[in-house]
Amino acid sequence: MYYNYQSDTTQFLNEFLEQHPEEAEQRLKNRHLLWDVELNPEEQAGFEAAKLPKKPYAYQPD
Predict the structure, then answer these.
(1) Cβ proximity of 6 and 14 under 8 Å
(2) pTM, whole model, 2 decimals?
(3) 10 Å Cβ neighbour count for 3?
(4) What is the end-to-end Cα distance of the chain in Å, rounded?
(5) One Pfam annotation, family name (predicted)?
(6) Which residues of 46-60 are buried (b: 16+ CB within 10 A; e: fewer)?
(7) Closest by Cα among 27, 46, 45, 24 to 35
(8) Is the pLDDT of residue 3 over 70?
(9) pLDDT value at residue 1
(10) 23-60: per-residue pLDDT in tens?
(11) Is residue 18's pLDDT more than 70?
């Protein structure tokens, strides 16, 4: 099998990032906006307290 295959899209992105190294830095900055956030423990506890219990069988009428 040929394990070193890269799609055209992957090749394009790799070449683009080589030519524009500032974009790699910007990607990391943007990642921090969505994924690397600290969760507020008080807010998380409120979310847990607001959850409703699930029914054993969701399709059974009440």
Answers:
(1) yes
(2) 0.48
(3) 4
(4) 56
(5) DUF3460
(6) eeeeeeeeeeeeeee
(7) 27
(8) yes
(9) 64
(10) 989 998 898 888 888 889 999 999 999 999 888 888 88
(11) yes
CA atoms within 13 A on the CB side of 30: 6
For the chain, give every domain's residue range: 8-47
34: its two tokens: 């969505």
What is the 8-class DSSP label of residue 7?
-
What would the two tokens of residue 29 be? 């900055």
> Which of helix, strand or coil describes residue 8?
helix
Q: What integer pLDDT is reported at residue 44 of this predicted model?
A: 95
Here the tokens at position 10 are: 């992957």
Distance CA 18, CA 21 (A): 6
H/E element holding 33? helix 21-34
Structural tokens at position 46: 């409120």
